[in-house]
Amino acid sequence: MMFSDTVRDLGELTGPILVFGGPYSNLQATQAMICEADRLGIAPENIICTGDVVAYAADPAATTDAIMDWGIVTVMGNCEESFGAEADDCGCGFEEGTACDVMSRQWYAYANACLTPEHRAWMRELPRRLGFTLGGRRFAVLHGSAQSINEFVFEASDDDVKYSGLEMLAVDAVIGGHSGVPFTQLTGGGLWHNAGVIGMPANDATPRVWYSILRTTDQGIEIEICPLEYDHAAAARAMRDRKLPEGYASCLETGLWPNMDVMPQAERARAGQPLAAGTVLWPRHVTAAAE
Questions:
Q1: Is the pTM value of this prediction over 0.90?
Q2: How far apart are CA 172 and CA 134, in angstroms?
Q3: Mean pLDDT over all residues of the chain?
Q4: Rounded CA gap, 172 and 177, in Å?
Q5: Residues with Cβ within 8 Å of residue 175, at least 6 apart in sequence
Q6: b/e map 86-107, b = 16+ CB within 10 Å
Q7: Alpha-carbon distance 130 to 172, whole Å?
């Protein structure tokens, strides 16, 4: 079983860059994301998915087809790694016996039976890391952390993980995925950003899902975190029709995760508090390379 182990360099990008993570087999959310990108006038070559195209929801094959046909740039997540290898589990890193572990066995078996050899071949060819330059800053895009494809990096995660990732990759900024909650953090002159995911809400008691847009301005780089509305009722109904875990189907409607096993205490304390859209400016004069 051969995997791509390449780093794909996108070169210098201009214009707004749209980033999202975790479609999670949620076809309704993926279709809404495609419509939103079209409304914003952002071309596929300036759109990046941080991985986990297939996971909890009802339409793994159709969602993968939609992402493949869209022609955007996708980085390999742990789910693509597992499905591509026809592995026994999702490789999410859940502790054995936890609620996440138990439910993942159900959705993984369902999704694994839906995917075709063509889907798995596409997943195996995805790059594990992307690189690009925007506004004079060098970015790396990956799924988990610099050390591991399935490491959960939240805003409250140990800063050493972020510092060491920036240093290891020799970049000014890292865009990660996997953890499912959007945040932007200026750290030691560098930047760590997670756009959130479109396949599940952000545990904020709303059914909205999240993406981000990066833009250059005269003052630096703006990182805007944006909500996305979609037909979450249809997505939840499709999950129930296919007898997928009720905890995740309910989550699409309530906006609350069925458990918080993987979250640091600070993120758990914010459960149920609606997120606000917002923009962080990364000032032009603050760069890791300048320190």
A1: yes
A2: 10
A3: 93
A4: 17
A5: 19, 48, 50, 139, 140, 141, 142, 193, 194, 195
A6: eeeebbbbbeeeebbbebbeeb
A7: 14
Taking only the tens place, the pLDDT of each residue in 125-159 is 999 999 999 999 999 999 999 999 999 999 999 88
- Both tokens of 110, joined, read 């369902």
Q: Which residues of 17-26 are buried (b: 16+ CB within 10 A; e: fewer)?
A: bbbbbbbbbb
CA angle at residue 155 from 150 to 159, to 5 degrees? 85
Contact 54, 24 (CB under 8 A): yes
- Render pLDDT for 188-215 as a digit per residue (tens, 0 to 9): 789 999 999 999 999 999 999 999 999 9
Task: Report pLDDT for 285.
Answer: 65
The distance from CA 44 to its chain's CA centroid, rounded to whole angstroms, is: 17
Q: Give the separation between CA 198 and CA 207, rounded to whole angstroms.
A: 10
Residues 64-121 have pLDDT tens digits of 999 999 999 999 999 999 999 999 888 777 777 777 777 888 999 999 999 999 999 9
pLDDT band, residue 284 (cuts 50/70/90): confident
Let me know: does 22 contact 50? Beta carbons within 8 Å.
yes
Q: Phi/psi zone of residue 105: left (φ > 0), alpha (ψ -120 to 50 degrees), beta?
A: alpha
> Using a CB cutoff of 8 Å and minimum separation of 24, what contacts does 236-239 make?
238/27, 238/28, 238/57, 238/58, 238/59, 239/56, 239/57, 239/58
Cα 182 to Cα 20, 81, 198, 203, 286, distances in angstroms: 10, 23, 11, 11, 22
Residue 262's pLDDT band, with cuts at 50, 70 and 90, is confident
Q: Closest by alpha carbon to 23, among 77, 71, 95, 69? A: 77
Q: How far is Cα 251 from Cα 24, in angstroms, rounded to an integer?
A: 13
H/E stretch holding 34 reads helix 27-40
